Task: inverse folding
């Protein structure tokens, strides 16, 4: 087999050592994960140093396991190591097509599940100040993000907490999902999540284009802001996140701007309230002035009315008093007549007398005893007698 051939295959292994790249190629049956053919491939240093950067520039990804490639190879057989393909070129357009196909499949599945726009539909809290950050601890972008938040021009206060994760390579998916799970356990402590990645090659973004990670981001119950790529790169989690920005500093600017908008709304509302209150107070002042100017005439009218009413009451009171006096005088006259008719002097003047014993009127002879002294009152004078015989 002296010629070179273009071979389509899936990579089940890809590793670099000593500047060379060692690959394992597999072919799978349709609809199965079981390989039906395997082969070893090698790309020597002098070729790999040219193929690798060209491939990464074109595809935005490093060569890794699970990727489908179209390679130009020639056959090589070694007595000790056996048969292998020697790689002389890799066509990035083939891989781009496969990557795009897989991306479209993932996007279609997310839309079919009804979660593609789920995180976008959540409102960013007005006072979004408690921020959970997913990033690698030593990343420059993480430091830039925190510094910009803490040293903002408006003196706004933010509280940040890092949930460390790997931000490139095959460990992106499991470590970012694990960080989201840790945040979920303390969901009430945070207002949003920021996933940031400070710098690095665009070829390291492939870990953010997985179905499992996209599902976790889309379903997360807090708004997620991503700042993991560059202006021309958009990963699948950028598509499903609440907001996608270019860089970590742009994510910080977004949060500062959000709080500035809230502060401006508060200031605007305070100004409207102040103007409304001032206008109301001015209207009330004018109304009071109008009332004050009318008070003397109102008071004069009220005074006249009250004086007339008092005169009426006084007249009624005087008439009532006179009538009452007349009734009382008539009653006195009647009582006087009755008292005159009961005067004890009248019977005496008609010839009667009154006999009294010890200051009491004697009504029966049996009430007196021998020797009792009695007094008899006549119309003119009194007589004193002593009982000698009963």
Result:
């Amino acid at each position: 087999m002296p010629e070179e051939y273009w071979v389509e295959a899936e990579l089940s292994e890809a590793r670099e050592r000593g500047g060379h790249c060692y690959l394992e190629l597999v072919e799978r049956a349709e609809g199965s994960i079981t390989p039906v053919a395997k082969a070893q491939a090698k790309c020597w240093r002098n070729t790999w140093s040219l193929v690798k950067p060209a491939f990464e520039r074109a595809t935005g990804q490093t060569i890794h396991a699970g990727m489908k490639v179209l390679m130009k190879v020639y056959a090589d057989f070694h007595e000790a190591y056996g048969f292998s393909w020697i790689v002389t070129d890799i066509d990035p357009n083939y891989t781009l097509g496969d990557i795009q196909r897989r991306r479209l499949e993932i996007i279609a599945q997310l839309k079919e599940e009804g979660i593609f726009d789920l995180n976008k539909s959540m409102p960013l809290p007005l006072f979004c100040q408690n921020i959970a950050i997913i990033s690698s601890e030593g990343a420059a972008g993480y430091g830039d993000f925190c510094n910009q938040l803490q040293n903002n021009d408006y003196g706004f206060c933010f509280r940040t907490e890092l949930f460390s994760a790997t931000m490139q390579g095959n460990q992106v998916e499991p470590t970012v999902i694990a960080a989201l799970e840790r945040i979920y356990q303390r969901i009430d402590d945070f207002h949003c999540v920021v996933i940031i990645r400070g710098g690095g090659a665009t070829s390291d973004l492939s870990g953010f284009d997985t179905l499992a990670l996209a599902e976790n981001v889309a379903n997360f119950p807090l708004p997620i802001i991503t700042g993991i790529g560059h202006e021309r790169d958009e990963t699948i989690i950028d598509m499903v996140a609440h907001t996608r920005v270019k860089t970590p500093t742009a994510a910080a600017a977004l949060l500062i701007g959000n709080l500035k908008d809230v502060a401006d709304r508060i200031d605007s509302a305070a100004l409207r309230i102040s103007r409304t209150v001032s206008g109301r107070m001015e209207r009330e002042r004018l109304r009071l002035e109008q009332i004050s100017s009318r008070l003397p005439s109102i008071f004069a009218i009220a005074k006249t009315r009250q004086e007339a009413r008092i005169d009426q009451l006084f007249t009624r009171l005087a008439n009532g008093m006179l009538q009452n006096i007349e009734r009382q005088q008539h009653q006195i006259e009647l009582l006087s007549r009755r008292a005159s008719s009961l005067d004890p002097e009248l019977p005496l003047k008609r010839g009667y007398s009154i006999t009294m014993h010890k200051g009491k009127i004697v009504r029966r002879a049996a009430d007196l005893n021998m020797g009792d002294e009695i007094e008899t009152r006549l119309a003119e004078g009194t007589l004193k007698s002593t009982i000698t015989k009963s």
Remarks:
- Residues 59 and 96 are 6 Å apart (CA to CA).
- The chain has a mean pLDDT of 88.
- DSSP finds eight helices and 14 strands in the chain.
